[in-house]
Structure to design on (336 residues):
C-alpha cells in the first residue's frame, strides 16, 4: 500500500531532521513556488492530488495568501488535514475547511510561555512609560523627559481570554503582586483560576487598572476594544495586546492616549500589520514591538515539532493532537 503524501509550504527552520524522518510513514513534498497564483495553478494541474496533509504557517501566507474559501475550494480532494504552525489561525477559513471535510490544527501550548513573557515585558514597560528614558539614554540625554510611572503591586490586571496564554500571564503577574480578574467565554475550574476573579466584560473594563488582551481573533472579537469600551475604562488605564491587532480600533486607542484615558499601551500586534498607525509610532507613551511574542529558539522549535506531531497523529490515527476549537467535540476530534 502506497504512503500518503505530506505537502510542506514555507519550509521548516529548526526540525529539518524530524521532518525528514516523517518519510518513514509518508511521501514528503515541498512547495517551491513563490506566489498564490503558482500554488493555485499547481492545484488545478493535479500536482498535489495525492496530498493528504499539509504543513503551513502564518509566515507562509506571504507565499500563498490566506487560506480563504477560494483557496480551500481549490485544494486537492485528497487533502484531509491542514496542520498550521501558529496559535492564531485567523488567516484560515475554518468554516470553509469544515465544509470541505478538512480538519485543521494549530499550535497552542507551545507558544504560551514566550507570549506571556512578552505580555509582562510590555505591561511593565507601559507602567513605567519606559520608551521615553529608553530612547533618551541612547541620545545621551540622561533621564531626558522621564516621568514617574507606576508599580504593579496591588494593581488589578484584567485578562481578556483566560486560555493557556492568559493563565501564564496571570501566573507571572501574581509574582509582581497584581490582583487578577478575567473575562472568558466560560468560567474556568477553580484549579485553573488559581484565585482569579471571573467577571463580565463590562466589569473588567470598568474596574481594571491594566488590561491584557489574550483572546483569539474571530468575527465576534474584531474591534472588541473601541471608543465605547475606552469610555468605560478607568482614567489612566494600561492596555497590553499580544494577541491580534484587529481586536483594537487603533484610531480610538490613539484618541484615548491623547486624552489621558489610557496612560500607556504595550503592543506587539497591530490592526494592519506590518503597517503601524502613525499615531502610535509617534506617541512616546506606547511601547512597541514588531510581533515577536513567540520569537525564541525554543518556542519556534516546539511549534514546528507540534505541527509534525499533529501530522503524524492524523495520518496514523485519524485524529489531530491540537485541533482548532471550532472543530472540537466533547467526544474528541471531529472525524470529518
Amino acid at each position: 500500500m502506497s504512503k500518503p503524501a505530506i505537502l510542506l509550504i514555507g519550509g521548516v527552520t529548526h526540525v529539518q531532521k524530524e521532518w525528514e524522518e516523517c518519510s518513514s510513514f509518508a511521501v514528503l513534498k515541498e512547495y517551491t513556488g513563490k506566489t498564490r497564483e503558482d500554488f493555485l495553478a499547481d492545484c488545478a494541474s493535479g500536482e498535489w492530488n495525492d496530498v493528504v496533509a499539509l504543513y503551513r504557517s502564518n509566515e507562509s501566507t506571504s507565499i500563498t495568501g490566506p487560506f480563504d474559501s477560494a483557496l480551500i475550494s481549490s485544494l486537492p480532494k485528497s487533502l484531509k488535514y491542514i496542520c498550521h504552525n501558529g496559535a492564531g489561525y485567523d488567516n484560515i477559513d475554518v468554516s470553509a475547511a469544515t465544509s470541505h471535510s478538512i480538519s485543521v490544527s494549530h499550535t497552542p501550548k507551545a507558544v504560551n510561555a514566550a507570549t506571556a513573557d512578552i505580555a509582562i515585558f510590555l505591561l511593565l514597560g507601559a507602567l513605567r512609560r519606559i520608551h521615553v528614558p529608553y530612547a533618551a539614554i541612547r541620545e545621551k540625554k540622561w533621564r531626558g523627559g522621564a516621568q514617574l510611572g507606576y508599580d504593579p503591586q496591588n494593581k488589578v490586571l484584567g485578562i481578556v481570554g483566560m486560555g493557556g496564554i492568559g493563565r501564564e500571564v496571570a501566573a507571572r503577574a501574581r509574582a509582581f503582586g497584581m490582583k487578577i480578574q478575567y473575562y472568558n467565554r466560560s468560567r474556568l475550574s477553580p484549579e485553573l483560576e488559581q484565585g482569579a476573579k471571573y467577571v463580565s466584560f463590562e466589569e473588567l473594563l470598568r474596574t481594571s487598572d491594566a488590561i491584557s488582551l489574550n483572546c483569539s481573533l474571530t468575527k465576534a472579537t474584531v474591534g472588541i476594544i473601541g471608543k465605547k469600551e475606552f469610555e468605560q475604562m478607568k482614567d489612566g488605564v494600561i492596555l497590553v495586546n499580544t494577541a491580534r491587532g484587529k481586536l483594537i480600533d487603533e484610531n480610538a486607542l490613539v484618541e484615548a492616549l491623547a486624552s489621558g484615558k489610557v496612560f500607556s499601551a504595550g503592543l506587539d500586534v497591530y490592526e494592519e500589520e506590518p503597517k503601524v498607525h502613525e499615531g502610535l509610532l509617534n506617541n512616546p507613551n506606547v511601547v512597541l514591538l514588531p510581533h515577536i511574542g513567540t520569537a525564541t529558539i525554543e518556542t519556534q522549535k516546539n511549534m514546528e515539532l507540534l505541527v509534525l506531531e499533529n501530522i503524524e497523529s492524523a495520518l496514523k490515527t485519524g485524529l489531530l493532537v491540537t485541533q482548532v476549537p471550532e472543530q472540537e467535540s466533547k467526544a474528541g476530534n471531529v472525524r470529518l
About this structure: Confidence is low (pLDDT under 50) at residues 330-336. The longest helix spans residues 297-317. The longest strand covers residues 51-57. DSSP finds 14 helices and 14 strands in the chain.
